[in-house]
Amino acid sequence: xxxxxxxxxxxxxxxxxxxxxxxxxxxxxxxxxxxxxxxxxxxxxxxxxxxxxxxxxxxxxxxxxxxxxxxxxxxxxxxxxxxxxxxxxxxxxxxxxxxxxxxxxxxxxxxxxxxxxxxxxxxxxxxxxxxxxxxxxxxxxxxxxxxxxx
Length: 150
What we know:
Layout: H1 3-18, H2 22-41, H3 52-64, H4 69-89, H5 110-122
């Protein structure tokens, strides 16, 4: 199936079946338009021509172009959704976006996140500090935020 037709089908399905908000649909539409531009620049026209290594390269290209981590995460989410739709419809045999790691935000230290999650769940005292390798960066005023510089 042609990539443009697959994108149109997917967006229509999101609008009618998932009943996403218009803002979310617009964001997905923009993200999938970027995907289509990148694919056309590589000479790809069909959805089954998408490969994991291409998607990873495009993620890196978008990052170098200044796209932030959250925007990259949304772009990858839109691509994953499109490919999952392609799996359900039989256009794809595997989801090429599944192997792509979620872009991490600047202060997205896994050990701090896990520590923060444990602290939140256990209701530990606010005097606790982060135990990640970079030292005590716990910000007691924002229990959900990781202030770790790594």
